[in-house]
Every structure is written in structure tokens, then in C-alpha cells.
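Review form for a predicted model. The reviewer records the input and the model, then writes brief findings.
Reviewer: anonymous (R2)
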Amino acid sequence: MDDTEYGRFVDWDKMESGGQEQSPKVLNCNDLQELKQLSRQGYWAKNHSLRAKVYKKLIKDIPCRTVTPDASVYRDIVGKIVGKRSASTLPLPEFVDDRQVPTYCLNSEGIGSVRKVIMCISNQFPDISFCPALPSIVALLLHYSQDEAECFESVSRILACNDPNRRLVDQTFLAFESSCMTFGDLAGKYCQGPHKLMVAVSEDVMEVYSDWQRWLFGDLPFNYVTRVFDVFLVEGYKVLFRIALALLKFFQKVRGGQPMESNNVKRDLQEFVRDISKSVSPEKTFRESLCYPALLP
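Model under review:
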């Protein structure tokens, strides 16, 4: 697989390419523990072609329910769903936040394709009632997909995972709300300093923590969210908690000495995550995320 097989939707001027020539080109590993270590170390993070291959393999290995929509289904339905409407103006389903559609390093065709894929996902997954992470996941995978149909199939497999021991994406408000409460509990236990700050400056700390997934899937820059996704596909949902806790801790370190008002703390956190490259590298973020032993497999 080379760039021509997966870069159709990419604005290459925006994609980081440093170190591509010296980085590994293949991944010969099937051992889960070794995969965990390699993903945490960013083994395939600097080679876009290798990352595309790894994503394809990891997603193909996800155990799914018997009837899971694939690329051929997408090709059958996309024309009926989109019709003659402009892809860039397609309305999104209510279960995603229309304001949280990241463009990352997509070109104009890719930006429109995100909406097309999401609309077809909505058609094939009628049980989804709340899935704020979906736009980010679709946008991210489009960078490494040969076409929209392949991206659709990849996202479908993630949504259709039926391994009872492997949680991936929240698809109902109840599941999302539960994850927010869990994150609040984890913050109070493992990030006591940042948590006390949030309690002190927030009228409702759970309202602040309700954005925890959006920090990851929406606010993080592309070269950070891809690192999250690298590990997420190997280790599952706990990775998201670990990274979000690390972001909360870094926010306190960077912004803790500055005055914050209760009505601005959510915005301040969002701006910090969006501009995280000014203060924290992806490597440092991941090192911090490994400091929570109870959340490590």
C-alpha cells in the first residue's frame, strides 16, 4: 500500500511527513503484548503508509456481529442517500454534534466525504442514538482509506464490535453519561490536584467533564489524535480515560496559576487541548497516560 492507495482525501501540505524515509515500513507482529508496546511507542506513527496497513489489519481483526455492513453496502446505498445534494451541505444525524466535525488534514473532497459516510452509517445503524466521537473517527480514518466505501466498512466494524470484553465507542446517551461519571470518579481518584481545581472554578464539575471525549475526538490536533487511535485500536476504551486524565493534569500544570472563571473553564480546557502542541508533545502525553496502573491492561 503506497500513498496513492490511501491519500485521496488528504491535503498533503498539512500532513506531517518528517522521518518517513527512516521510519519502519512493515509490522511483523501478532502478539498482543508486543503490539501494545509498539503502539504506545508510536512504532507506526511516522509512516503514513504503515499506519494505513496497521489500521486495516487491526480493524479487520475486530470481532463483529454476523451482519455488519461492508464496502459493497456503502456503494449500494450512498447514491440513494446523498442523491444530487452537495456533500458539504448534507445535514448530519441528530446523534452527532454538527459543530464537532473536525477537518484535520483532509482536502475539500475529504471534508464532504465525512458527511456522506456519517449519513450512510446512520442509515445502517438505526440503534445509534448518541455518538459524539463518530465524526472524528470517520474523518481520521478517511486519511488512511482508499475510498469512502473502505472508510465506511472500517467504521462499521468498530461500531459492530460484539466482543463483550472489548468496549470501543459509546452509541447511546446512557453509555456516554455513564462514561462521564466514570471519568469524574477517575479524576477524583487519580488527578486530585486538577480535580480540586475543576471543583473550585466550576459551578458544575460534571458539566466540565461531560466534554472529556470531545477533548480527544474533536479538539486534539491530528498528530495527537492519531497517536490516541493507534493505541485505542489495540487496547480499547481504557486508553481514552488514560489520555483524558493526562490532558487534565497537563491543563492544571500549564494553566493552574492563571485566574479562571467558572463560566470559562470549559472553553479554557478546550483551547488548551486544541493548542496542546505549544506546551506538551505527543510523547510526553503518552508517558503521562501510563501513570495510571489501574487503567492499564
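Findings: The chain has a mean pLDDT of 88.
Further findings: The radius of gyration is 19 Å.
Recommendation: see findings above.
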